[in-house]
Amino acid sequence: MRYIPRLQPARPALIECFNEKSFMEKTLLRPIVMAVLASFTLYGCSAANHRPNFERLEPSADTFSITVDVPAGYHIEADTAYRPRSWSCPAFLGDTGVVVGLQPKGVISRPDSAAVSYSFEIPLRIVNSGCPLFPQRPTLTLVGPGGKSDKAKEEIIIFFPDDIWGRFWGHGPLTSLQQYRRCSYVFDTPSGRGGVSKTISCNTYDAERKRIVRETPRFAWSELQGKNIHFTFELEPEDNPRDPREWVKTPEGYRACAKQGSDFFCTEPPRFRQFKMDGQLCDVYPACTLTES
Fold this sequence. Notes:
Strands 2, 5, 6, 11, 12, 14 and 15 form a seven-stranded mixed beta sheet that branches. Strands 1, 3, 4, 7, 8 and 9 form a six-stranded antiparallel beta sheet that branches. By secondary structure, the protein is mostly beta strands. β19 and β20 form a beta hairpin. The chain has five helices and 20 strands.
């Protein structure tokens, strides 16, 4: 397995954290400021900007895995933030955390299947600058064929045994290792944007796909070794309007209601308006057909 660091924008240098110019203009404070700058450059900002090559990190042999099934034509991007535990690096004042982009350990696409399966293996510990780091918030991004609007993120929260939030949540057994997401495209015609805006959103369902459950899966770090978390992403067959009060579903598709006073809420009988999609004038979504009326 190959681990690839996902480079993050460097944090502002300390000269941006402190207004050095305003301090330096005060001669009496110059020695104090220089001492503070030196200490923070050594222990703070320089460490926060440090993004080592992953070859220099030491992934543990203890791992857990994530398997993700997505509709054909979609793919998964994955990363995880590694952070030290509160007591693990008491002598180090800087931020040694890293965000790691994960290469799939395997991708399976069968001609007879409408889904593609991705698998990722995640070490339960790595080492950065001598500091042990632990996975804190793995993130899965479902990416569709349409670009930025076709992205939906899924986060996983991992609690450490001594984590105050873990105690607060009263975490006991693992959240279900089987996670189901039903995704749909939501469309709208926001004022001033010149056309239809479409984004993808996902809800968490139970195994029978009948009931929406808690959105964010939470796991105890000590219980994850050797476990596999399996996500299944499914796509609804139809797009849905962001606000159903502004659209009427017809046999041809959705029609947008004309503005009434200060809003676009539909009346009875409804009055319709045209809208733009991909630069074309349309009466019906998503086919963008023009009616004769």
